[in-house]
Specification:
Flavocytochrome C3, Chain A, domain 1; 21 strands; 6-stranded mixed sheet
Length: 471
């Protein structure tokens, strides 16, 4: 039976769209490219949702008002964001949790201490995998049909209207409305190479990128919509949620546990054994996602986070043990860096430290003077053995190149919104995220626009159905 609404994708945004369309009375079919065991896309690796709130609410402490959320987003994006759509996302984040709970999502009690996010982020009990499993159970209970291992390679569009989807197996599925929520192109190595190109050292940086999430986000539909249907696009193809992760992480699906969280508590050096950025710029929820791009710009796309014993116990322990040495020269030799340059870098940094009242939970007054780059917070000499090093590579979570949209989530062609083709999640996140990232905002965007897209698609489909019935 032809569905009223076809949802292409299987992560948070797609599921939100499918659930909202079904609740609005539409017959819904969801196509997930991955096998059932790998369903959920990058959403399965998530942990939390950044939420606006004007007063303490259930699992959120204190207040995180709209203007502060907006200023945080403005800061990390450097102003490369659509304020109208950003504020829509922010406001929607304050009202979605009851709906999420109605579909089986549970939230855990507030976190405190070093994670520093109990005020701004609501954490899913069981993480993102539990969230997508809850949504799939709810979808199936409500009668949403789900097909796995059903990748869509192309869609038919006529005069800006969705007509049908063509699956890789040759099958054609028509529908009265469609929601595209099939992710970015971060798993497509050829496209990453094309986007990043070759640097002045003759390297292809993308060859050294690791993918934190799913292997199924190949960007096939995104490329098809942009190249073949000339859909309006937004964003820079080199911009992405990119984190510095353990260089020993797997190529795909390493997830949150591969992140290295001790960057702010020590120094980071490149292959030439030199520092290249302020390790103490801000708390990790606002600044952890700049480090992947910073490492991507270094020789060989590799760097090392260096700490001493004073930092132990103050950050989330990595999955893999670091390289351990009882002296800094020994550490340099173990990780293969030039010992003389490494020692000059560390000695210059240590001499520049102006230690005040150290507090890794606040923007403290421990800083450097007379060294470049400066370290503006949490600067303490690295002088207490044993010493540890963690090799870092760029870890891509999702890309920001996407389809331009508006507050109806409609795909646009020549600046005209389609009346039955909608987009949500990574495929449109670049409207809000031109660059940078702050923890939990990806799930805020996916949830907000997934719900809008599902509602709009159901309305378009049911309107079309009513017209056919009256004819």
């Amino acid at each position: 039976m032809e569905p009223d609404v076809l949802v292409i994708g299987g992560g948070n945004a797609a599921l939100c769209a499918a659930l909202m369309a079904r609740e609005a009375g539409a017959n819904v079919l969801l196509l997930e490219a991955a096998p059932r065991a790998w369903r959920g896309g990058n959403s399965a690796h998530t942990r939390n949702l950044r939420c606006m709130h004007d007063a303490p609410q259930d699992v959120l402490v204190d207040a995180y008002p709209e203007e502060e959320y907006w200023q945080d987003l403005l800061k990390v994006t450097g102003g490369i964001t659509n304020e109208h759509l950003a504020r829509l996302t922010i406001r929607a984040s304050s009202t979605c949790r009851d709906w999420m709970r109605s579909h089986g999502v549970h939230f855990q009690p507030p976190l405190s201490g070093a994670l520093h996010v109990a005020r701004t982020n609501a954490f899913f009990m069981g993480g993102g995998k539990a969230l997508v499993n809850a949504y799939y159970r709810s979808a199936e209970r409500l009668g949403v049909r789900v097909r796995y291992e059903a990748p869509v390679d192309r869609i038919e569009v006529k005069n800006g209207r969705f007509v049908a989807a063509l699956l890789r197996n040759g099958e054609r599925i028509s529908a009265r409305a469609c929601v595209l929520a099939a992710g970015g192109f971060e798993s497509n190595r050829d496209w990453l190479r094309e986007a990043w190109g070759q640097n002045e050292r003759g390297e292809w940086p993308a060859d050294n990128f690791l993918i934190r999430g799913t292997a199924f986000n190949q960007g096939v539909l995104l490329k098809h919509l942009i190249d073949d249907h000339h859909a309006d696009r937004v964003g820079d193809p080199t911009q992405a949620h990119m984190v510095a992760i353990d260089a020993r992480a797997p190529l795909y699906d390493g997830g949150i546990c591969t992140r290295i969280d001790c960057v702010s508590l020590g120094v980071v050096v490149n292959r030439e054994a030199r520092r290249f950025y302020d390790e103490g710029e801000d708390f990790w929820p606002k600044r952890y996602a700049i480090w992947g791009r910073l490492v991507a710009q270094q020789p060989g796309q590799i760097a090392w986070s260096i700490i001493d014993s004073k930092a132990i116990g103050r950050f989330m322990p990595p999955v893999f043990p670091g390289v351990k040495a009882h002296s800094l020269p020994e550490l340099a030799r173990q990780i293969g860096l030039d010992e003389a340059t490494f020692m000059q870098t560390l000695n210059d940094y240590n001499a520049a430290c102006r230690v005040g009242r150290f507090d890794h939970t606040a923007l403290d007054d421990c800083h450097t003077e007379g060294v470049a780059p400066a370290k503006t917070h949490w600067a303490r000499p690295i002088d207490t053995g044993p010493f540890f090093s963690y090799a870092l590579r760029p870890g891509v979570t999702f890309t920001y190149l996407g389809l331009k949209t508006d507050d109806t989530a409609a795909v646009r062609f020549n600046d005209q919104p389609s009346d039955n083709l909608f987009v949500a999640g990574e495929m449109m996140a670049g409207n809000v995220l031109g660059k940078g990232y702050t923890a939990g905002v990806g799930m805020s965007i996916g949830t907000a626009f997934g719900r809008i897209a599902g509602t709009q698609a159901a309305a378009a489909a049911l309107k079309k159905g009513a017209q056919h019935a009256s004819a």
